[in-house]
Amino acid sequence: MEALIGALVLLLVLSAFFSGSETSMMAVNRYRLKTLAKSGHRGAHLAERLLAQTDKLLSAILIGNNLVNSAAAALVTVIVFRLFGESELALTLATLLVTFLILVFSEVTPKVIGASWPERLAPVISFPLTFLVKLLRPVIWFVNLFVQAQLKLFRLKPSAASEHSMGVEELRTLLAESGSFLPSQHRSILSNLFDLEDVTVDDAMLPRGQIEAIDLSAEPEEIVRQLGTSHHARLPVYQDDPNNVIGMLHVRRALARLQEEDFDPETFRTWLREPYYIPSGTSLYAQLTQFQANRQSLGLVVDEYGELLGLVTVEDILEEIVGEFTAVLPGGQVASSMQSDGSYLVDGAASLRELNRKLKLQFPLEGPRTLNGLVLEHLEAMPEAGISVLIAGYPVEVVQVQERMVKTARIAPRRAQS
To answer: What is the mean predicted confidence (pLDDT) over 191-204?
Structure first.
């Protein structure tokens, strides 16, 4: 009798092993498993091989689990008959008892454990499971004949259902839920990388009105003075019309040559390099690739008619990924400054994407790309100092106007939506 009870306990333990194995193998993070396997972990490598043939793995586990549970039920019947004879009441109570034991100790508990620590358990249990799959290969083959027939009958394709590739949205979710595994700055950079396909050069460029350029038609003294005070490494050079860009000038080299010779317009033209143009609407990811392929770091953005829209550099694209390198605009002008009442004084030419990111605002990005453009769109008239407009719940006051453009604006805290 002791031997029968010991055998029953062993069967319950085996049932718990199969139940926990099934859950842990199905719940294991396959990417962590792949990382362990690449590092030379033998158990992880075996687990990967088992998961590559899920039908055989599940067949082996379920065959073993069902055999063990059936044997346990039969053994309980034998034990009851030996202890109480052919008593239907005793057999019913014993059946309920063994069902409870299987449910609690051989099903629920091991499955909870397997689901809680799959990465620890899967590499360990892969050793006995590999042996079991090999041992039961003929039985598995026979069972799978019927399984495959049913799948074909219902026109199901297991290979399509077992795909574990991840798309961009799945990766975004994975990053969002990474928690303490990744520093917030790293998560932000990776998330910004996914946005490069959706963000265009128009969103990151310096608008035409803010581009510092040299007019070759200006007086020589003015050109030399501009070169000496410029804080840029390269400047566009145009003739009469800013749209008529004739080349790009390397400022330091030009200054060095001007120390050796007098300014001459024709000689000055020979110092220029061919401008690099970028079509409007090009994604930042595509442009970053083009910059790398063409060994360029600066380009002029033009529309379909060849009109100059702005200027974009490699640094502008990198700032979209890692964030701003500085809060100061060219020329030392501060992009925004917080006031004592919680409002912000902002440059009208500031990018809406930059304002949303830096000041945690929620301005719409579908239309205009600058604060000036957004204010003009809502006013539908020329701006005047002192006028206020409510945009996306934020009161925006025009503080300073210059050349029919909003030079400076004040953005107050967002009003609660009623």
So the answer is: 81
